[in-house]
Design brief:
elongated
Length: 126
């Protein structure tokens, strides 16, 4: 039963990874125009990627490894775009992906540091 629950927890992340992979390798003629700066799209997509990955970390310190893996995935997808008609690999897109992932890590670190459980004090303030 534990395996099923862990698998269900991973589905949103896996679905998002497939979506990002699909959207990143679409031919340029099929790309939707979102009227948003391209680099901001990359930044936001990979920030969200890290936020979706967080619930799967057993220990928050492992989040660094997940961010590295997400950045590597973004780099691999940039290289895969060479094989998609009308697309090309962009180092600036890779930088935007990585900055988004690192920003997601930073947001989580800030959130986790401000939401630490505090010890309960007795009525005398001890």
């Amino acid at each position: 039963m534990k395996y099923v629950i862990n698998t269900l927890r991973a589905l949103p992340l896996l679905g998002y990874a497939v979506f990002i992979g699909y959207a990143s390798t679409l031919p340029s003629a099929e790309m939707p125009d979102l009227n948003v700066w391209d680099k901001l799209q990359h930044f936001g997509a990979y920030l969200l990627f890290v936020l979706l990955a967080y619930p799967l970390t057993l220990q928050p310190r492992n989040l660094h490894l997940i961010v590295i893996a997400i950045c590597a995935y973004g780099g691999a997808l940039e290289l895969a775009q060479v094989f998609s008609p009308g697309r090309y690999a962009s180092f600036l897109d890779f930088i935007a992906n990585s900055l988004g992932a690192l920003s997601g890590l930073l947001l989580l670190k800030i959130f986790l540091s401000t939401n630490k459980p505090r010890p309960i004090q007795d009525s005398l303030g001890r």
